[in-house]
Structures are given as structure tokens and as C-alpha cells.
Amino acid sequence: MLEIRAHERGGPAAAKALLTQGSPTVHLPHADEYFEVRFESIGGLGAHAAGQVLATASVVRMGLNGAHFSSYGSEKKGSLIRSYVRLAAGDRPIRTSAPIERPDVIVVFHAALLRSAATFGGLKADGILIYNAPAGVVPAELAALPKTARIIRVDATGIAMKEKSRPNAVMLGTLCTLCPFFDRASVLDTLTEEFAGKHPEAVASNERAFQAGATEFEQLQGVGTADGDLSPMPTEPLWGFKTQPVGGVLPAPGNTIWNDLTTSRVGWMPVLDSAKCIHCGVCDLVCPDFCLAWGEADDGGKFERKLKGIDYQYCKGCLRCVESCPTGALAKTAETAGLANKLRVPLFPELIA
Questions:
Q1: Which overall architecture, per CATH, does domain 2-220 show?
Q2: pLDDT above 50 for 101
């Protein structure tokens, strides 16, 4: 856990000194409460770095007290990650490092995470949900949000690709506009400093992405239907001495058939053009996740088996099949809302719809 706290650098006097050195005077919406932000993401999109930038800017440049910490598993690309930022006035100590269960703002870096109620669990009735997705169909799951919450959609992946940046720079720009007490210049300067040393070539692109995120978003109306705050994130029950199943029985048996790698894709997906395919099987040799669906040929042609398509539930978007295809039948395509579901050919239709 990384904690950045003004009171550990001299308490209120240190915070006051920062303000007198040209830093903006920042007042949180509720002086007697923490302001808490939860980033929901997968590895590789920069949520942890975004939390670091926001917390550092809040403390070093805005005179607030702040704590930042993240939770993640294997740290591999595509694995679930949550990053937390907890802020308080400069003269108020932060004496907790517990995960944020009732956030003021939730920032979702991958729209597929909205399928889980845990992603937006605990959002306050007057809170803000920002999620990364291009314009299109609004996910049905968002109906569970508070009717009084602000729901914001921004195409962070599209902007990042255009500006040769990362989604985290875009999401920080959007966050600063929606929470105007964050000094935009302070956050942008901190973001710039983060990359100036090791990746100076990324500074200009990150600034463009940040500025685009600050303006190129849309607020969705009439989406949420719930009254009041949402319940905190559901947690799995812990089996104890008296409550564990007899004999070590698995209460929810399963295997990798039930895996869903949808959240591993970060903007691109392979798409099959059947007219170009010669069904050579090279793509199947290089696919690490066995997501290609083959079947018996039914047209009386020279092929006994043909590549029917891709089961995108198991495709993480590595694009090795595209790189190895000798005819260009598999093409790198920008993923838009609903495209994977439309083109998906299920590997196990009798088990998973």
C-alpha cells in the first residue's frame, strides 16, 4: 500500500505551507467526510498509475491528505484490479487503509466489468459512475444504479488509440471535469511528471488524451432505477470450522469451460472473413486459448472441416491468429459494443448460450 499524507510531512502547517507556495486552495464537497474514488479495471490499462497520480496531485499540489492503495491478483494483463484513493482535508488524519466500500466516484476502465454487481457496489445515491465505452447501447446492468447518480460514458480506449496514449490519462481528464474541486492543472502536471523521466515521448500524447477526456464525454439520462445508496460490494462467504462443507466438498464445482476472457481485450479483436479462409489450421496452432470453433463442412466442397468462427468468451485479444494467417482471413478489428456477441460462434452451445 502506498500512502501519501500531508500530516505525515508536518501536519496542518505543512499543508498550509503548500497552499502559500502557489498551490490552489481545494475544498472537498463534505468537510466532515472522506472523498473516496474506486477505480475498477483489469491489468494493463493503468488504473493503479491513475490512482497514484490522483493521490499525489491531491497531496503534493493541492494540500489535501490522501491515501492510495490497490488490490490485484497475479498482476497479469487482463486480471482484475481495484485501485482506491481516499482523500481528506489537509488537517484531518486518515487512520484507515480499508478498501473503499461506499465510493463517491467509481471509474470503470472496461465496460465488460459492468456485468458484475460488485463493480458498482456501494455507490452513493449522489455519486458518479464513469465508464469506458464508445457510444451505443447502454448496458442493461446500469439500471441497478441509483436514479440520482450521474452516469458518464467516455470512449477512453478510442481516444487513447487516436492520441497514442493510455485510457488512464483520458479517465483522469473526465474525472477532473466532473469533480471540479480537483485542480485540473495539478493533476495534469503530476501525470506529465510521471512519464517525463522514463517515457518523455509520451508526455505530449498523454496531455492530449487528458484534455480530450476532460471534454469528450456524455452524461446518460434516465438509466438508474434504484433509490438511495447501493449496498456495498458482495463478498464470498468464508468457510469456518462449523460451516465448511463435510468432506471438503466444492460448493461451486466447475472448470475452465466457464472462464470468460472478455475483459482481457483492450480495444481490438480478430474477425474472420470466411471467403478468404483456406482452413489451414495455422491460427489454431498459435491460439493460446483454444477459442477457434471448427466444424464439419456442409457444402460438399474439398474441405472436410472448416473454421466456423471465434468464441469470443475465450478470446483475450492477443491477435496471434491475425499475425499468422497466410491469407488475411483473420483481421484486426476495433471492438465496438455488441460486436463480439453478434459474431460469436459458441464452442459449447449445449452448455453455454
A1: 3-Layer(aba) Sandwich (3.40)
A2: yes
